[in-house]
Amino acid sequence: MKQKKLILLFLWAIMLCMTLFMLSSCLDLDDEDKTLVNVSLENVPTEAIDIGKFDEQTEVFLRLDYDDNSVTKERITQAFFGEENQHYFEEVGTHELEIKYQGFTIKFAVTFKDPIKYFSVEFLNVSDEVVSEQTVKEGENAVAPTEEEMYVEGWRFLGTYDKSFDEVEEDLIVKGEYVKTWNVSFYNNNNELIKSYIVDDKESSPEPTEEERAVEGYTFLSWDRTFDEITKDRTVYGIYQKVKESTSDEYFTFTYLSETDSYERKAKDVNNMPAEVILPSTHEGKPITSIGDRAFYWCRSLTSIELPSNVTIIGNYAFWSCASLTSIELPSSVTYIGDLAFANCFSFTSREIPSNVTSIGSAAFANCRSLTSVKF
Questions:
Q1: Residue 99: what pLDDT?
Q2: Which residues of 316-354 are buried (b: 16+ CB within 10 A; e: fewer)?
Q3: Helix locations, 58-174, DSSP H
Q4: Which among 45, 82, 165, 365 is least surrounded, fewest beta carbons within 10 Å?
Q5: What pLDDT sits at residue 26?
């Protein structure tokens, strides 16, 4: 029984081999009956591709057409062209490539270019902080940061850089160029900020205008320190003098002088006059140029008087017997001092005569018993 089973298994194996042989013969017959009638290419690249990137950047196929209308395709790779043609794939330019297949020859052109390169460009401020980081294509320009981005407190960005970032060919670190700055602040006598300036190192600061530094009731004299060649933050205070109010016009009379288009001034009542008198420089918009004859004649209450800077004439007997008068400064505009103008001014100790005075009347300082010197 066992022997019979072995014989049957042997016969089954023989039949299987014969079946496989017959099937293979049929297949070979079919292949022999198929004829290749055309070979062509699909997806030939029309744009330049990077050197060494043929396989990655293209999908060129070899199309095989047979007489039974069947079609097969085979992908063309760089290795397809053989060792002797590999140099084409490493050379910039347009190259004519050739494929031979079962008696068919196909030629096609491929253009190769250098691979696109990108570079890093970093922009730094004066503190070496990265303001902007960019990836720039080879040969193209990086974009400069804005002034706001480049701002650093205490420094002024000049708008320039330590190197060019046009037509980039390598990784770059670009540093902005700056100058150190300082704050210069100006204050008035009320400790109010007038104006603050940002000044470049070792440069001079501008100063507030006359209008900006004005304080009502005060005259600006000067600043308490210089502001040239600044090398640190600086605070500058204005020096002011309180403006003295002019004595009211009610104490005076005025005479119009047509030849000079100005006014002459006199006391209205010497017995009703303040001890300290400040004469305004104008009346009805015209200058006061003359202290008239006997203007303050025998005004014994008068102790000091300020004359306006446009007075040119001090008339005869103008201050005669002003026995208490100790303070009077003659402005540089005075050219004429009349007869007995200051006679009997017992409290005078010294007097300076302006250089523009061309005429002094007789006995102008007669009986000034305390007068010890007169300067010309």
A1: 87
A2: bbbbbbbeebeebebeebbebbbbbbbbbbeebeebeee
A3: 147-150
A4: 82
A5: 45
Helix H or strand E segment including 124: strand 118-124
Alpha-carbon span 293 to 317, nearest angstrom = 6
DSSP conformation letters of 336-352:
EE-TTTTTT-TT--EEE
Cβ contacts of 313 within 8 Å, gap of 6 or more: 264, 289, 290, 291, 334, 335, 336, 338
d(CA 186, CA 220): 13
Q: For residue 95, what is the enclosing H or E element?
A: strand 93-101
Supply the DSSP string of 274-342, one letter for each residue.
-SEEE--SEETTEEEEEE-TTTTTT-TT--EEE--TT--EE-TTTTTT-TT--EEE--TT--EE-TTTT
Q: Low-confidence residues of the chain, pLDDT below 70?
A: 1-13, 15-32
**Which of 38, 95, 48 shows the shortest CA–CA distance to 72?**
38
Cβ neighbours for 306, distance < 8 A, ≥ 6 positions apart: 244, 277, 278, 279, 328, 329
**246-279 pLDDT tens trace:** 788 889 999 999 999 999 999 999 889 999 898 8
Count of C-beta atoms within a 10 Å radius of residue 110:
19
User: What is d(CA 307, CA 329) in angstroms, rounded to the nearest whole number?
Assistant: 7
CA distances for 161 relative to 134, 166, 178, angstroms? 16, 12, 9
The Cβ of residue 87 has, within 10 Å, a number of other Cβ atoms equal to 9
Q: In the numeric block, which tokens belong to residue 301?
A: 């209450």
Cβ atoms of 205 and 238 within 8 Å: the answer is no
| DSSP line for 224-262 | SS--SS--S-EEEEEEEEEPPPPPPGGGEEEEEETTTTE
pLDDT of residue 23: 47
Q: What is the Cα–Cα distance from 42 to 65, expressed in whole angstroms?
A: 13
What local confidence, expressed as pLDDT, does residue 11 receive? 64
CB 347 within 8 A of CB 368: no
Q: What is the pLDDT of residue 374?
A: 82
